[in-house]
């Protein structure tokens, strides 16, 4: 092998080694970037997991919530009565929106007044049934029925419905009421009234628990398990 061929051969080996070294440096840089990204991501998640300050219902906030529920009944009766039932039952919005007309039965009372029993499935798992029963009087049910009757008549739609709370009658679609829309309306009323806590329908559960305690009931379970 002559000297020129030797140099050419060494030059090829050098280029190959240089390429490997450059690739190695590139991998190191990419690992650094990935490590920093994961570090920042973990930091953000930890910050998001910080517990928010606990919120307690006071007599002042209780009156404010009830005032907003009353106001919502005036501007949007169906939504207002939906929120009203949440506040007297402690149910979640997603549980109440599934209640059908067939889940309502009449029950006798000692005074002769007709009361209505509403069965709400509050189970967190579909395979399990856990029924909470809510009792309302004829005046409350009549107000709910009238609100729906007026709503459907204004739209020239048949007043019959599947759900206790329903605003639409689309064919081949589930016509459960839109709780996101209700939540936004209620939150706007709370803000306009000077309510500073960034909550909406969940306040109804807080109010329910607060009223139970105020009436002498001992709460032996956490709100999240209600």
Question: Could you please describe the fold and organization of this structure?
Answer:
Residues 59-226 form the Tyr recombinase domain. This is Tyr recombinase domain-containing protein. One of its GO terms (biological process) is DNA integration. GO terms for molecular function: DNA binding. Keywords: DNA recombination, Plasmid. The chain is mainly α. The protein has a domain at 59-97 and 139-214. Helices cover 55% and strands 8% of the residues. The chain contains 7 helices and 3 strands, in the order H-H-H-H-E-E-E-H-H-H. It has helices spanning 3-48, 59-75, 77-89, 93-96, 138-154, 179-192, 202-214, and strands spanning 104-107, 115-121, 131-137. Strands 1-2-3 form a 3-stranded antiparallel beta sheet. It is elongated. 19% of the residues are buried. Mean pLDDT is 82; it is low at 221-225.
